Amino acid sequence: MTKLQAGTVQTLKVERQAPFGYFLSNGKEDVLLHNNELSEDFDASQPQTVFLYQDHQGRLSATMTIPTIKIGSYDWAEVVAVKPKLGVFVSIGISKDILISMDDLPDIIDLWPVKGDQLYCSLKTDKKGRLFGALATENVMHEIAEQAAEDDFNKNIAGRVYRLIKEGSFIITEEGFLGFIHKSERREEPRLGQKIEGRIIEVKEDGSVNVSLLGRSHETMDTDAEKIYVYLEGRNGSMPYSDKSHPDDIKARFNMSKAAFKRALGRLMKEGKVYQKEGWTYIKE
């Protein structure tokens, strides 16, 4: 006989009624179905299909609300709380939120999901039988992915970050495309579970895509030019940066590539707002 396990769906016989609910049984173990967890079509004379979980006191309990997220079954779950010394809690549609342990989250807490972010996950139990959320693996994401076509190149997309590595971020788009954002194609690193918007800059042979979070040149020039000009104003009209500056110095100061810096600086010069001299840039009076 199968042992009752949190995170699974079971069909159990109603064994007896109690003031606060009904005890269900598989013939060997009992579990409480609280009155608050009954559905409108509950019939004590019939076996009940329920989802098993641990209540707030850690006791195995049953609910007639069957979530899409179960052990071995994945879906999107919304982050409802962040606890720095524990992890993040997600809602799977039942009365008890589920913890995704800090051990399964990025080492840098600023890259943890925040309330409202979404994670594609399943459930798992530890050696003590406690129920936790389990983030989808790369293999699971490939199972649900759709292939991009060549004509998807340069399209705007939106998606969720599902994995972080040193070189960049993996996402799945709303269309189901698996994508990768190299660290050079973003201004800042997105969080796990964060919704991002970008554009497809390459469609690969396997149908996955490379994505950039940087705007097209004509879209970003105004923003970049403004950032440079505001910086100049804050330094009384001069700065020790020009189109000859080292790319690392430009990245560190303005968080933009040298190519983007040169385009924006060129625009400011063309508009007669700034000029360069001996490696410095000045606001034109």
Biggest sheet features = 5 strands, mixed, barrel
Approximate strand percentage: 35-45%
- Backbone structural class: alpha+beta
Number of helices: 4
How many individual β-strands? 18
The fourth-level CATH homologous superfamily of the largest domain is Winged helix-like DNA-binding domain superfamily/Winged helix DNA-binding domain
In one word, what is the shape? elongated
Give me the CATH architecture of the largest domain, please.
Answer: Orthogonal Bundle
CATH topology of the largest domain: Arc Repressor Mutant, subunit A
* Rg, nearest Å: 27 Å
CATH class of the largest domain: Mainly Alpha
Low-confidence stretches: none
What descriptors fit this protein?
alpha+beta, OB fold (Dihydrolipoamide Acetyltransferase, E2P), 4 helices, 18 strands
